[in-house]
Amino acid sequence: MPQTAGTLDSQQKTTSRRPAGTLYRGNTGMWSWVLHRITGVAIFFFLLVHILDTALVRISPEAYNAVISQYQTPIMGLGEVALVGAIVFHAFNGLRIILIDFWNAKYQRVLFYVVIGLWVVTMLGFAPRHLINVFSH
Amino acid sequence: MTSTIEAPRSPYTRSSKKSSVNWEKWGWIYMRVSGVVLIVLIFGHLFVNLMVGEGVNALNFAFVAGKLSSPFWMVWDVLMLWLALIHGGNGMRTLVNDYATSRISRGILKIAILVSVVALIVLGTLVVFTFDPCPAGAPADLVASFCKTL
Q1: What integer pLDDT is reported at residue A5 of this predicted model?
Q2: What ipTM did this prediction achieve?
Q3: Considering the domain boundaries, does residue A15 fall inside one?
Q4: By percentage, how much of chain A surpasses pLDDT 90?
C-alpha cells in the first residue's frame, strides 16, 4: 500500500516520542500493568498464608489467638496498610481493565488517573483509622 | 504484501486437532467476572474485620466463631475462598507462562500452583463447614459469649 511522506513523518514522530499501537507498552498503560502483576503476586502469597492461619480455628482457640495476635503488632499493622493498598489498587485497576476491554480503550490513560485518585481517597479513609487502632492498642 | 495477525486470545493449537472448548477464553471471562464479585466480597470482608469497632484488635477466636456460626458469613467466606484462589492461581499461571522459559520449569511451577490451590480450597472449605464455635473444654474467656447459654 503506498504511503504519502506526510503520514509517514507523523507516524515516525509519534513512535519516536512514545510507543503507539499497544496499550501496554510505555507510560501509564505499562506501569498499571506492572503494578497489577506485582500487587497480584503479593496478594496471592498473602492469601495462601491467610487461609492457613485462619484454618487454626479448627485446631484450638489458643492456637488461633497466638497467631492472630501477631497481626496486631505495629510492624504487621504497617504491613496491613501495604496489603490493603495492594488490594485496593488491584481492585480498581481490574475495573479499569474491564472498562478498557468492554467499553473504550481510548480512555485508558484518564482511567489510570481515576484509579490513582480512587486509591488515594480509599486509603485516606482506611489508613488513619487502621493505624489509630494499631498504635493505640 | 499482507500478513494476517491472529486475534488476541485466539486458542492455542498444538496440532490440527482443535479442541471444541476455548479454555483461554473462559479463563479470560472468569478473571473479569470473579474479579467484580471479589471486589464486593473482599471490600466487605476488610470493612467488617478492619474498620468496624476496634478493627484488627478485635480479631480473635471468639470473633471468628461469631461470624462462622452464621450461614451468611459461611457462604461469604467459602465463595471468597473459591473465587480468590482460582483467580489468583490463574493469574500466577499467566505469570509462569510469561516468565518461566523452559518447558520443565513451567510444568513444575504450574503443578505447584495447582496443588496449592486445590489443597487450600479443600482445607478452607472443610474448616468452614466442620467448624465448632464452642469446642468442648475450651476456656470460657476464649470462646464467644453465646457458648455459655448452650
Answers
A1: 46
A2: 0.85
A3: no
A4: 71
Amino acid at A103: W
Nearest to B110 by CA among B90, B93, B91: B93
CB atoms within 10 A of CB A90: 22
List the domain range (segments joined by +) for residue A90.
Answer: 23-135
Q: How far apart are the first and last CA of chain B?
A: 81
Placement of cell 501495604 in the chain: A82
Half-sphere exposure of B127 (CA within 13 A, CB side): 23
Angle between helices A74-102 and A27-54 (to 10 degrees): 130
- CA dist B88 and A50 (Å) reads 14
The reply to whether residue A55 touches residue B123, judged by beta carbons under 8 angstroms, is: yes
List the CATH number of the domain containing A118.
1.20.1300.10
* A&B contacts, CB < 8 Å: 108
Locate A57 and state its grid cell: 480455628
Residue partners of A60: CB distance under 8 A and separation at least 6: B135, B138
In a domain, residue A71? The reply is yes
- Alpha-carbon distance B14 to A113, whole Å? 41
| CA pair distance A133, B57, nearest whole angstrom | 7
Count of structural domains within chain A: 1
- CATH code matching the domain that covers B29-147, chosen among 1.10.4160.10, 3.30.390.30, 3.30.70.3040, 1.20.1300.10: 1.20.1300.10
The answer to whether residue A2 sits within a structural domain is no
Q: Please choose, from the candidates B87, B75, B79, B76, the residue with its C-alpha nearest in 3D space to the C-alpha of residue B27.
A: B87
pLDDT tens digits, A70-120: 999 999 999 999 999 999 999 999 999 999 999 888 888 899 999 999 999
Across the interface, of A58, A84, A94, the residue whose CB is closest to B46 is A84
Among A72, A83, A129, the residue to mutate for chain B (most B Cβ within 10 A):
A72
A60–chain B nearest CA distance, Å: 8
